[in-house]
Amino acid sequence: MSAQFILYLEGEEQQQALKNLTVWVNGLLLPVYARETTSNAPWCPRWWEHAEAVAQLYGLWMAWQELTDPATGMTGPALWHRDHLAHVMAALRDPAGPFAGCKPGGHRPKEPPQVDERGS
């Protein structure tokens, strides 16, 4: 497990981090915490193709790793639920969030906002 944030990783290290994240998202997060996909709560079946989703989910996974470690104490999972889960899932599943336009069986790539060059 890498303690470095996924956006700072490259190459094989980044691929391994994404693989670990995918196992956690598909094996634990979605089966336990994902609610039905609707137009008001979208989810992309190819969530890993959304950089914002990867960043948010990786942060959530890192917090999970820390707060569910037995050395953290018995309140760790409650803190994870209170301080991390609801906020990240609400941001990702917001109708205007990173999965806007995605639906079961359909991924819609997003373009980042255009940025004008800064004058000197």
From TrEMBL:
InterPro entries: DUF4913. Residues 97-120 are annotated as: Disordered. Residues 108-120 have a biased composition (Basic and acidic residues). This is DUF4913 domain-containing protein.
